[in-house]
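Hey all, sorry for the wall of text incoming. These are the two entities for the joint prediction.
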Amino acid sequence: DAGVTQSPTHLIKTRGQHVTLRCSPISGHKSVSWYQQVLGQGPQFIFQYYEKEERGRGNFPDRFSARQFPNYSSELNVNALLLGDSALYLCASSLGASAGIYEQYFGPGTRLTVT
Amino acid sequence: AQSVTQLGSHVSVSEGALVLLRCNYSSSVPPYLFWYVQYPNQGLQLLLKYTTGATLVKGINGFEAEFKKSETSFHLTKPSAHMSDAAEYFCAVSGNGANSKLTFGKGITLSVRP
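and here's what came out:
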């Protein structure tokens, strides 16, 4: 079975622009979570979606938004990009919404560079 | 609220030596604890996790960790390091609620010397 896939692999944007990152979960997984990993730091939780509903939001500004589609794939959108948004964005899928109960499987990430 | 502290950012060991990576947690509810490994340019892979029951947890690639509630610790060990163990290691904590999320530490880079 295919693992979690993310696109694009790398992305370079200019300050003020908008970006959309995409994630396809493992087949059968209904939950998708997004994490931001700044260089030298651990991943930080941004959003979780389960059955197309938002189930959790981390401490990120409203410039960050996400959605989950009927096929359980997901998009992360970031508006008005700042230099500080440069990071590796990780997507994780799982069978259920509880990270304590259902193992999260991570994709390889999208490396976003904002110049 | 939950948090994880991983002291030190880099650990270097010789091949064949003991690996010990430290993790301390803070949690207002019974914690679920995890260790993940990240190889360069890759996502995170689960090494092992503690939920309930046996406090000594065995994971993949010969790693194990022991949950010590009295010390609020979940240190990761491996008896004999291999060159392929060189990577970044993250400790994480979550609750057991319906919408619980992972909270990660800053990570520790493990180097293995030949």
